[in-house]
Amino acid sequence: xxxxxxxxxxxxxxxxxxxxxxxxxxxxxxxxxxxxxxxxxxxxxxxxxxxxxxxxxxxxxxxxxxxxxxxxxxxxxxxxxxxxxxxxxxxxxxxxxxxxxxxxxxxxxxxxxxxxxxxxxxxxxxxx
Length: 128
Fold this sequence. Notes:
Elements: H1 3-18, H2 25-32, H3 36-48, E1 52-55, E2 61-64, H4 73-76, H5 88-106, H6 110-124
Antiparallel strand pairs: 1-2
Helix pairs in contact: 1-2, 1-3, 1-6, 2-3
């Protein structure tokens, strides 16, 4: 996963946790430690894809555009395929790995990640 994908997921997780409340770009950036200018660009892309809704003005901000259970990770994380290199066995392995990744992501939604985050976040409170 590249850093842009990670930042997209972090922003969507923050918005899903805050739903139905809107958040400002600055607030999401601060909470998730994402550079605000980069985040604004990523949120623009997510808005074009219909995953977030933006509003301007004093009561504006960004909110999640669909229920987290409807946002499939396979649609968010697109594996970058490089040029085919290596012999037949290496290319075969690369295809097998890409297929396994697609199948795993097809079952997962943003709601899955949100639940993992909530469970693991709670666990941190119990460490001594």
